[in-house]
TrEMBL record:
Keyword Repeat: yes
InterPro entries linked: Apaf_helical (IPR042197), Disease_R_plants (IPR044974), NB-ARC (IPR002182), P-loop_NTPase (IPR027417), WH_DNA-bd_sf (IPR036390), WHD_ROQ1-like (IPR058192)
PANTHER family cross-referenced by the UniProt entry: ARCHAEAL ATPASE, LEUCINE-RICH REPEAT-CONTAINING PROTEIN
Coiled coil location: none
Protein name (record): Disease resistance protein (TIR-NBS-LRR class), putative
Assigned keywords, A-Z: Leucine-rich repeat, Repeat
A GO term for molecular function: ADP binding
Domain NB-ARC stretches: 72-178
Disease resistance protein Roq1-like winged-helix domain residues: 244-323
Biological process terms in GO annotation: defense response
Species the sequence originates in: Medicago truncatula (Barrel medic)
Amino acid sequence: MFSREIIFEDISDRINRVSLHVAKYPVGLQSRVQHVKLLLDEVSEDEFHMVGLYGTGGLGDVRENSTPRNLKDLQEKLLSKMVRLDIKLRSVSEGIAIIKQGLCREKILLILDDVDRLEQLEDLAEGLDWFGRGSGVIITTRDKHILTSHGIESMHAVEELHGEEALELLMWMAFKNDRVPSIYEDILTLAITYASGLPLALVIIGSNLFGNSIEEWKCTLDEYEKIFNKEIQKILRVSYDALEEKEQSIFLDMTCFFKGWKWADVKNILHDHYGHCVNYHLGKLAKKSFINITTIYPLGYIHDETLHNLIEHMGKEVVRQESRNDPGERSRLWCPDDMVQVLRENTGTSKIEMIYMNFPSMEFEIDWNGEAFKKTTKLKTLQ
């Protein structure tokens, strides 16, 4: 085992103090940094403090996360960044021992970004005795339950970017300055509405529309409504892919059919599909920032639920990608054009589980003979 003196000899002379790049245009960052500092200052300077930040993917660092997910690699990176110790660990257990031995008397600020498993915290920053007095650990995650399970009491939901802040970030990304011709005001408002407060979307939309005309802006935003932007989908889908199968299914039901419905109108359908534990699964979706449950009564009854607009788009895109060209091969149908195609061409299949007949009044006349439903043997709900 390495001695503390060998590992950390002359540590103050060897720490790498290179500043980290945060964002090209750090709009709205200062006020949020001050809030995190206030959370860290809730305890005295001599106490160790952990702060957890949670929210939907794309609220924080909008770059694709390239941090290694192997825990031993993460431990080696921690030791390398903190004390410039380049070491190949034999095991995670060895890494825990070296981190505790080497940093237990050092005052540090450790930021663990995009944590998605409880074991990452347990193997990188488990307890109060791992680091010196006055140390702070900031954890960002999409899953609030990870923070709760680790015993973190100081938590904060990351705020979305709206109003003037959203406009400023979009203008910097799309025009490279914060002053634009007034003729763009309406289209900027449309883009901000589509982004729904997600910095990730503002950055991607602004970058894609840089140098384009108003007509090109309109066409691009109209296309986004039909087919979700691939870059946004890739980042938001990370959390979806980590869900259990039943949670994925409930989330897609909520996304495609029940967004904004009163719980009283939804619960019987979901209970029939998933049993009496559906409240438990919805609670997990809420903790993972997929849905917002506005009211939970003392007995566990949910009053209402909502979804972020882009989370809704992501879920619908998951279903669309089940079969890009043949809606009859998808698990859920809610779009009038897709349903008309399936009914007219009799292309329903056993893959269809739910259909929401949301036809605008008198807009469609469908001449069909019922054959479209013969193959939908797994259809659970026709609404």
